[in-house]
Each structure stands twice: as C-alpha cells, then as structure tokens.
C-alpha cells in the first residue's frame, strides 16, 4: 500500500469516526429535548444508528455524552451570536441583540432551545454559549462606563436566570408573543445594567435582522422547524 | 361503641393518615434534594417507613407525590416569608427582605433549598412560595408608582430566574459569601424595578433580623442544619 493510499484510508477512518461521534451527539440532543435522559446506552446507539461498541470509543459514560451534547448546542448558539453581532460595538447593543435573538430561537429552533433549557442553570457558568458572552459584554460595559452595575457576577446571574426563565415561559405559554416578552425582558435588563430608560427602550425595540434568514445562514446543520405560531 | 368512642377512633385514624402522608412527603423531599427521583415506590415507602400499600391511599403516581413535596416546601418558605415581612408596607422593602432572606436560606436550610431548586423554573409560576409573593409585590409597586417597570410578568421572570440562579451559585461556590452576593442581586433587582440607585443600596444593605432565630421560630418542623461556613 503506497503512502498516499494509507493516508487516504486514515482520513476516511477519521471522517467516519467524526460522523459516528456527531450522530451520537445528535441522538443525545434529541433525548435531552424530549427529557428522556435515563435511557440505556443501547437505546442511544440505536437512535444514532451506530454500533453499540462504538459508543465507548467516544465517551466513557452517558453523562459525558450528554455534557458534550449540551456544550455542542451552546456553542452552536454562541457561534451564531458572534456572527449576528459582529457589526456592533456598544456592549449594550451587543447584549440586547444577543438576548433578543436568543429569545426568538426558542420557538424557531425548539430542539436547540430545549437542549439548552435542559442544561439548566449550569448554562450560566458554562464556557460555551450565551453565558460567557454576556459576562464579556457586562465587563466591557463596566470598563467603559456604559454600565453602572457594581458587580459583574451578580448581573450575570440575573441575566442568565432571566434568559432561562424567559425560554421556559415561551414554551409554557404558546399564547404569548415571544418577541414582545423577550424585548421587554431585554429592556428591563439594560435598565438594571444602568442604561437610561429611554435608551433601553430604543435599543430593545429597534428593528432586528430577519431571524429566519440569519438562522439559515449560520445554523445550516439543524433540521429547521417552522415556528408554531 | 358510644358515639364519643367512635369519634375518637375516627380522629385517631385521620391523624394516622395525615402522619403517613407527611412521612411520604418528607421522604420525597429528601429524594428531591439528593436528585434521586427515579426510584421505585417501594423505595419511597421504605424511606418513609410506611406500608407500600398506603402510598396509593394518598397519591396516584410518584409524580403526584413529588409535586406535593415541592409545593409543601414552597409553601413552608412562603409562610415564613409572610411572617418575616409582616411589619413592612413598602413593596420595595417587602420584596428586598423576602429576597435577602431567601438567599440566606440556601446554606442554612440546604434540603429545603435543594427541593425548591429541583422544582426549577416552574417555581416562578407556582401558586406557592416566593413566585406569587414577588408578583404581588411587583404589582403593588407598580400600582403605587413605587416601581416603574412596564410589565409585571417580565419583571417576575427576571426576579424568579435570578432567585434560582443565585441559589444554584450559592451551592456551587461555597467559597463565596452568600449574604454579600444575595444583597447585591437584590439591589440590582430593585434598580431594575425603578427604585433610585442610592435607595436600592440603602434598602438592600440595611440590617436584617437574625435569620437563624427567625427560622427556629417559623420553621420548627425542619431538621435544622448548621450553615457550612
């Protein structure tokens, strides 16, 4: 076997391995979204359509897989948030747009939303997703005097707790307008950060880029569901 | 059997029934606090030290028991909050004292705290505990002009999400001062409600009644653990 042939075989093997891992992560995300995390490994591998043995090539335990599944969802959202706020500089505007778009994702991407909500409060302190980005915005706002909060961690707990409570409320109350509620929470949070009330209103009710367009550009891997309403 | 004897027997029967129910609820609270809710009914009745058959005299399903256990914990806290704020009239002060005392409960009453945290975001919309009391305070504050929030439900989501995130952070970071962090979050929330910053500071850093004394007066049924720190 020539070296080129061996290298191609190695590459194929790596690609197959990555595909198996991705299939396991997707299956775990589906189970998380459905609240079915106390399943056997066999059920997970069947859902992922991979061999039972291959599970342990990638994960030592089910918990490790579910952790990876949550981090992957959070990071998918995080990458999207970065892309969607690239043109902004004011930390108040960056935070508000991230928060407003996140609020709109709950109905447009219900599976991604439910995986993130299932991760619960640990989302706030995760290295991935909205949490670290919100902390970055809060700290930048404090450093530049844009925000007057005395303690960044306290402000992060409030914003993170609010993001989760909002997501749950949007699922639990399909009759509510998700955009209106989200924008109101974002406005309240900016005021809490120390942004003057009239500015908070202006920032949180300004036109947004079209969320569906942005999702199709930046989250191409998700099976895009139509919003229910 | 005379009527008086029959009445006494009936009373004894009712008392025994109430004791069995209370033992089941306490066992469920212990399991919730330990995160062990996928146990068999037999394990619950053994932990409660009651007959397996008696379970179904009180609850149709395990879910029903766990629901009752959460509501009982929330209501225990709610009754305590009412007692602890009876002397206050200003909704900003009532909210702040309730929130500050709730924050201090996480370490002083870890089991009660973990049951409430396990109930997650449904705590916010429950008919029991901090949620409905916070909503009452927010609505009263809006009606009297004390608070300037535009939407009470949005403010409730933020305060409730913050209460949960704070509780989790207090458990996850034993090195942090729970009282300082709690008071800072309460201050931020009052500012978000529209209370002027200097007043929010004054209200949220004023002396509090001794929490341990108050707990021993109003929550006599709990096995009082000592704070870890």
Task: Write a concise keyword list for the protein shown above.
homodimer, 229 residues, mainly alpha, Arc Repressor Mutant, subunit A, Tetracycline Repressor, domain 2, 12 helices, 72% helix
SSE diagram, text form:
The structure is a homodimer of 229-residue chains.
Chain A: H1 3-33, H2 41-48, H3 55-58, H4 62-84, H5 91-108, H6 110-118, H7 122-125, H8 130-144, H9 152-172, H10 178-193, H11 197-204, H12 211-218
Helix pairs in contact in A: 1-2, 1-4, 1-6, 4-5, 4-6, 5-6, 5-8, 5-9, 5-10, 8-9, 9-10, 10-11
DNA-binding region (chains A, B): 40-59
Protein name (chains A, B): TetR/AcrR family transcriptional regulator
Pfam family, one (chains A, B): TetR_N
